[in-house]
Amino acid sequence: MSATMNATLVYKGITDIYNEANVSGNGSVMGVLNIPPSLNKAINILLVGILFITMISLGCTMKISKIKAHLFKPKGVSIALLAQFGIMPLTAFSLAKILQMEPIKAVTVLICGCCPGGSLSNIFSLAMKGDMNLSIVMTTCSCIAALGLMPLLLYIYCQGFDGLEDAVPYVGIISALALTLVPCAIGIAINHYKPKYSPFIKKAGLGILPVAAVLVCGLCYFVSKDVVWLVLTPDVLTVGALMPLIGFTLGYMMSMICRLGPKCSRTVSMETGCQNIQLCTAILKVAFSPQVIGPMFLFPLVYYTFQCAEALLLTLCFRCYRAFKPLAEDGDDVKQNGGEAAMMAPQITA
After folding, report:
1. Residue 186 CA: distances (Å) to CA of 53, 104, 202, 256, 292
2. Can you count the helices (H) and strands (E) in the chain?
3. Considering all CA atoms of the chain, what is the largest pairwise distance in Å, rounded to the nearest integer?
4. Residues 143 and 184: beta-carbon distance below 8 Å
């Protein structure tokens, strides 16, 4: 209750700025964002449902043997975790400070920066010819590690902004993180004990997610169509553009410095820059009331847009480079496959 009151006090100063901009004929952003309780509940349920489907689908891609293999040789996962929870929160904090963002904007950016890696990183890791085992294990491990690291990092970095020391709803964030682990564990269990159901669940998830995402986007636009332009400010757009780019770049550089191979380095790069936007949106929407968060609950959509655009651009550049200059590991893969084929030949003949 006190956290909500503090956040509301922080938000009042920003509301005055928005009111001066004549958001609507009535003038008050709080009035415009006074979402009907039934509609607000429907959006919250859809967001939690999307997060649940995403995490159970992710769990169905995991094999316990792969998790054990990376845990026994944790160098890649450790570097990826360090990049995820070292680079991104610090980047979010630094950009918010440099751009002198208002407190409610700053806390939104910090929550996004402290989120674990998202499942979108697995898709781009595949497109970048990365290590898929490392990518999937890293996404799962970052979700587990976020249960302790995300509240801790938010507490540390929020000390740098006046008014945010007690304004973050840590209980709500921890609850949201704990809820993500349940469907992920269910997915892992299904893949381990009933692997024949995993492909069906993944296909069902891929079919349901786009429909649910479009529905949520439509509802969010409906309730914020009059103030959606308020989130498209220069500072918010700058953060949305720079955060994923810095994550991709520094994640790759850190991996190369730590002497990971190019394949793993590309994977860590994607894992670092791609945040769990579904989790970020769910936290902002469920943990904060519309009167407190205002139009900033749309920031994850801004980040998601730049994240996808920049990852696609990097993938295109990588594919063009690879077309003209084949990578060394490609040759190694061919040799390995050829060696395996040669070993199998006598068995097939026999």
Report:
1. 11, 35, 13, 35, 34
2. 17, 0
3. 84
4. yes
Q: Could you give the count of Cα atoms lying within 13 Å of 3 in the half-sphere of its Cβ? A: 16
Rounded distance between C-alpha atoms, residue 212 and residue 296, angstroms: 21
Q: Which range has the worst mean pLDDT, 134-138, 250-254, 285-289?
A: 285-289
Taking residue 159's Cβ as centre, other Cβ atoms within 10 Å add up to: 10
Cα 293–Cα 298–Cα 306 angle in degrees, nearest 5 = 140
CB 93 within 8 A of CB 160: yes
Dihedral sign of CA atoms 91, 172, 42, 37 in order:
negative
* Distance from C-alpha of 128 to C-alpha of 166, rounded to nearest angstrom: 41
Exposure on the CB side of residue 25, measured as CA atoms within 13 A = 0
Calpha distance 248→309 (Å, rounded): 12
Q: Give the separation between CA 225 and CA 15, rounded to whole angstroms.
A: 17
- pLDDT tens for 151-164 read 889 888 888 887 67
Tokens of 220: 């969010």
Three-state DSSP class for 73? coil
- 174-214 pLDDT, tens digit per residue, is 777 777 778 878 888 888 888 888 888 877 776 776 777 67
Q: How many residues does the chain have?
A: 350
- 316 is written with which tokens? 């295109």
What burial class does residue 179 get, using C-beta atoms within 10 Å of its C-beta: 0-12 exposed, 13-18 middle, 19+ buried?
Answer: middle
